[in-house]
Amino acid sequence: MKTRERLNVFLKTFPSGECIDDLHLSFKQRSEKIADYFFDAREIVCELKTLNADPFYKIEERLRVLAKREEWPWIFGAKGLDRLLEVFPDAKKIRRTIYSNITNLVEESIKDANRQIRSTKKSFNLPDSDGLLIFLNDRVHILSPPLITSRILNALKKLDSVGQPRFPYVDAVLFINTAHLIQEELNTFSFPMYKICNPNCRSQRIVDFVDYLATEWCKAEGIMPVQTDWRNMEVVYREAIEIGEE
Predict the structure, then answer these.
(1) Which carries the bigger pLDDT value, residue 17 or residue 82?
(2) Which one of 83, 109, 179, 193 is CB 3.0 to 4.6 Å from 49, fit for a cystine?
């Protein structure tokens, strides 16, 4: 069973959980794009997204353009992206453009989740419920966990044209990454997991719930939890900027 399938089974059977697709929905509700789950007597509205559109083609498009430049190196064997780019005098700018393009997938997912959570809260008359996005990456290896995390945090910080939060309905994100391993000790590996709170969120309820949900998911998977503390996300963000965007 794939990770998303296992995660859906876990969420469907989670205490206080309701799979919205399994509910008796009106015709109007079924015609709308709404969220996936309710938790805690519908105080939490949850949407599950998977980063499953491998963005290699975006890199290939850019590399075909670069291959026409005189600096393009002769390639013998396999070379990583950074090794290819290091010969260009504007390597930093090229790298920033490539990473910006391929990580737009992350922000598009947040945009969709924000819209679906908003629609669900309105349709079910839940104005005071908190919105949670569970974001899974189980196959896109080229995007490192800190880089994805930086894009999530950056998106949650964005404001619209009148100075209001662009994605106000996503109060928190639980980012589960199984495309990369972290070595904890000798012969002991685990998967990174990041809990990211919207800077505009003032709800302790969503923080407590995500802590509990993340812990229970790790138990269900039989893995050691590797999680960043909510307060440390700015550090992760700065590290990701250095890794991928500068």
Answers:
(1) 17
(2) 109
Of 139, 108, 112, which is closest to residue 36 (Cα–Cα)?
A: 112
Residue 88 CA to residue 81 CA, distance in Å, equals 12
Q: Find tokens 């998911």 and name the residue.
A: 217
Helices 104-123 & 91-102 angle (0-180, nearest 10):
30
> 35 phi and psi, to 5 degrees?
-75, 180
In tens, the pLDDT along 137-185 reads 988 877 778 888 888 988 999 999 999 999 999 999 999 988 877 766 6
Give the confidence band of 40 by pLDDT, cuts at 50, 70, 90.
Answer: very high
Q: Are 205 and 130 in contact (CB under 8 A)?
A: yes
Residue 244 Cα to chain centre, angstroms:
16
> Distance between CA atoms of 103 and 51, rounded to whole angstroms?
10
CA distance 146 to 108: 18
User: Is 33:116 a contact under the CB 8 Å cutoff?
Assistant: yes
Distance (Å, whole) CA 225 – CA 154: 24
Residue 175 has, within 13 A of its CA and on its CB side, a CA count of: 28
* Alpha helix stretches (DSSP H) within 69-144: 81-85, 91-102, 104-123
Q: What is the DSSP string of 198-246?
A: -TT---HHHHHHHHHHHHHHHHHHT---EEE-GGGHHHHHHHHIIIII-
- The Cα 219–Cα 202 span in angstroms is 28
Q: Is the pLDDT of residue 201 over 70?
A: yes
**Span 235-242, average pLDDT:** 44
For 29-45, what is the mean pLDDT? 95
- The helix or strand, by DSSP H or E, that contains position 134, with its residue range, turns out to be strand 130-137
